[in-house]
């Protein structure tokens, strides 16, 4: 069947081909002046040397849209405006209503998709950048899985490298029991900062740390045991954050930097064999094409430092080779902040030059901006340090608890706790996902928890309100096959929004621009509010009543599904 956009697109594509003599994308989109418009006549006319309005008229005649459109016109320089027949909208809405996937079929050919996200660093507090990565990555996982792809989650934990020398020495200094106690309550900052302070202040400690790194890299069993302890305690803390955040990451998804240790030498050997390795100032480097520094000199990706050690880039090369060749993925997503954009561009180019990354496989850096505080600077705690993420999440839930108690004092305590969690955590996620991810966003509890505006609570409340219509009317939710009738303008607007869901999901799964899904849900909720103001539902006569209940049901399911793709729960009552 398809969405109205797809149906009109198909029809017009044929018409364009007849008129123009070659395939043309009709560029159908929602319109301010009609239901849909096509702007493609302008470009075609230019190529043909004809008047755009004449081309538009010829296309419209060839398309014979009578069965679909009740009105068509050519406007302005040559836009084709189309208004659908109400019966067509009703029929399409009914078909979507009867589909538990809301018109979004699983993809015909599932891909293996690796999503690299979250990736905090062991024995160090997660910062708001890791929070963003976790939230955006989780949404990427959900939408990709929902479309039927095979998704492999990779939490590329920073669990290896020089800082471990100092961390292990500090652990030995304070004793294992004390260290474990500090780390298990999530006091990662205290632990890390103390180690760092000693490292910076004492040459003796610095020297011990250096020797410890050598032992660690040399596979010394006693050192490895201490390292494992540090990693295990941190993982436990990170899992706590993930559980409160309600994201899909589990322990099995932790495949940290250390997991690639055994591959590093062979990656370098392969790069060497391919002739991609060059020695520069004692280090082994690759110089991926197209990257130059400020001085115009080619930029190196250092794969083996002059002291023989491997670094961040080497690990990422091993990881990308593993994901493409061993795991057989055809789509790689790296959800990491914008400061690492160039790093990933260089890693991808190197992987291409090595032949690991080749079509149809593709790799994309899903970058994002910073989280700012009210002062416009990167978000910090009142004391000026890194914010403890669990505290941030707890505060959101606390505030939501108060807001819910005020809004609905009748709600029983059990439901209230559940709703408060959905609202508090949902608010944080939505504030993040509803802004263009490339932009910085300001962390503002009051705004994100408001029941008005483009927020999670607003959408969750809109959803719960629709569910309450069914409760009040004693009607079982779900679509019973009633014909959907589109009469009132508000019904038409609502139907058009509902029918746009599949196209939005398709676009977002490609670009991972979740603000487009968020904006869509907001527009849908707004269209529903107008509909509900103008069109009585429970009090309407049949067959209107059933038809409107079907629209209510479909709206509720679309809101819940859409929020679900963003990782946000939609309680039935709040
Ligand atoms: N641990 C890194 C950091 O905190 C992020 C790792 C991102 N993933 C990757 N494959 N490099 O900045």
Quick recap of the structure?
With 574 residues, this protein is α/β, with parallel strands linked by helices. The chain is built from 20 helices and 13 strands. The protein has 4 domains: 4-84, 2-Layer Sandwich (Gyrase A, domain 2), CATH 3.30.1360.70; 86-105 and 372-574, Orthogonal Bundle (Isoleucyl-tRNA Synthetase, Domain 1); 112-157 and 258-365, 3-Layer(aba) Sandwich (Rossmann fold), CATH 3.40.50; 163-239, no CATH class.
Question: Can you characterise this structure?
Answer:
With 574 residues, the chain is α/β, with parallel strands linked by helices. The chain contains 20 helices and 13 strands. It has helices at residues 4-20, 40-48, 52-63, 86-97, 128-146, 163-174, 176-184, 188-201, 203-217, 221-245, 261-273, 312-326, 341-353, 389-407, 413-433, 445-448, 456-473, 489-511, 514-534, 544-565, and strands spanning 28-30, 36-38, 69-75, 79-84, 112-116, 150-154, 277-280, 283-286, 301-304, 331-335, 362-366, 371-372, 441-442. Helix 1 (4-20) packs across helix 3, helix 2 (40-48) packs across helix 3 (52-63) and helix 17 (456-473) runs antiparallel to helix 20. Arginine binds at residues 116, 119, 121, 156, 158, 316, 319, 334, 336.
Q: What is the CATH superfamily classification of the largest domain? A: Isoleucyl-tRNA Synthetase, Domain 1
Query: Could you tell me the strand content as a percent range?
Result: 5-15%
- How far apart lie the N and C ends? 36 Å
Look up the CATH topology of the largest domain.
Isoleucyl-tRNA Synthetase, Domain 1
Label the CATH architecture of the largest domain.
Orthogonal Bundle
Q: Quick check: average pLDDT?
A: 94
Question: Are there runs of 5+ residues with pLDDT below 50, and where?
Answer: none
Report the C-alpha radius of gyration, rounded.
28 Å
How many beta-strand elements? 13
Query: What ligands are attached or bound here?
Result: arginine
Helix content: 40-55%
Instruction: Give the strand order, joined by hyphens, for the main sheet.
Output: 1-2-4-3
Tally of helical segments: 20
Q: Tell me, briefly, the overall form.
A: globular
Secondary-structure-derived class: alpha/beta
Task: Give the biggest sheet.
Answer: 4 strands, antiparallel
How many domains make up the 3D coordinates? 4
CATH class of the largest domain: Mainly Alpha
């Amino acid at each position: 069947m398809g969405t109205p956009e797809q149906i009109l697109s198909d029809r017009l594509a044929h018409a364009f081909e007849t008129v123009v003599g070659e395939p043309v994308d009709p560029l159908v989109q929602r319109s301010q002046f009609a239901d849909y418009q096509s702007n493609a006549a302008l470009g075609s006319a230019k190529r043909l040397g004809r008047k755009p309005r004449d081309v538009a008229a010829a296309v419209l005649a060839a398309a014979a849209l009578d069965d679909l459109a009740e009105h068509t016109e050519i406007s302005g320089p040559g836009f084709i405006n189309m208004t659908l027949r109400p019966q067509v909208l009703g029929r399409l809405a009914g078909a979507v209503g009867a589909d538990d996937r809301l018109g979004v079929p699983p993809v015909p050919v599932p891909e293996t998709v690796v999503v690299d996200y979250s990736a905090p660093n062991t024995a160090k507090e997660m910062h708001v950048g890791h929070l963003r990565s976790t939230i955006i990555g989780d949404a990427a996982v959900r939408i990709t899985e929902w479309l039927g792809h095979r998704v492999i989650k990779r939490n590329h934990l920073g669990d290896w490298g020089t800082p471990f020398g100092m961390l292990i020495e500090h652990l030995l200094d304070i004793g294992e029991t004390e260290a474990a106690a500090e780390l298990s309550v999530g006091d990662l900052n205290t632990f890390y900062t103390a180690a760092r302070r000693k490292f910076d202040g004492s040459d003796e400690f610095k020297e011990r740390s250096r020797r410890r790194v050598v032992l660690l890299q040399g596979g010394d069993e006693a050192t490895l045991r201490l390292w494992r302890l540090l990693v295990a305690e941190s993982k436990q803390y990170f899992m706590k954050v993930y559980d409160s955040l309600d994201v899909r990451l589990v322990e099995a998804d932790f495949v940290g930097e250390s997991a690639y240790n055994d591959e590093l030498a062979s990656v370098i050997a392969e790069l060497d064999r391919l002739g991609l390795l060059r020695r520069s100032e004692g280090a082994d480097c690759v110089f991926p094409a197209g990257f130059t520094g400020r001085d115009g000199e080619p930029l190196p990706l250092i794969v083996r430092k002059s002291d023989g050690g491997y670094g961040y880039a080497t690990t990422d090369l091993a990881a990308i080779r593993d994901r493409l060749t061993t795991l057989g993925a055809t789509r790689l997503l790296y959800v990491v902040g914008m400061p690492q954009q160039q790093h990933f561009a260089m890693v991808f180019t190197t992987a291409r030059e090595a032949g690991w990354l080749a079509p149809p496989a593709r790799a994309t850096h899903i970058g994002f901006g910073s989280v700012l505080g009210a002062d416009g600077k990167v978000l910090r705690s009142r004391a000026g340090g890194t914010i403890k993420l669990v505290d941030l999440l707890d505060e959101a839930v606390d505030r939501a608890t108060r807001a819910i108690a005020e809004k609905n004092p009748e709600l029983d305590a059990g439901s209230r706790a559940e709703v408060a969690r959905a609202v508090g955590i949902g608010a944080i996620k939505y504030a993040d996902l509803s802004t263009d991810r490339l932009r910085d966003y300001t962390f503002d509890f009051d705004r994100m928890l408001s029941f008005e505006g483009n927020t999670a609570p607003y959408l969750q409340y809109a959803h719960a309100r629709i569910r309450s219509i069914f409760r009040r009317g004693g009607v079982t939710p779900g679509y019973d096959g009633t014909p959907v009738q589109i009469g009132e303008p508000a019904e038409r607007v609502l139907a058009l929004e509902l029918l746009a869901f599949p196209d939005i999901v398709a676009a977002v799964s490609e670009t991972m621009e979740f603000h487009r899904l968020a904006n869509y849900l907001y527009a849908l909720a707004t269209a529903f509010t107008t509909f509900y103001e103008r069109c009585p539902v429970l009090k309407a006569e049949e067959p209107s009543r059933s038809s409107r209940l079907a629209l209510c049901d479909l709206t509720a399911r679309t809101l819940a599904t859409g929020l679900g793709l963003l990782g946000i729960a939609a309680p039935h009552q709040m």
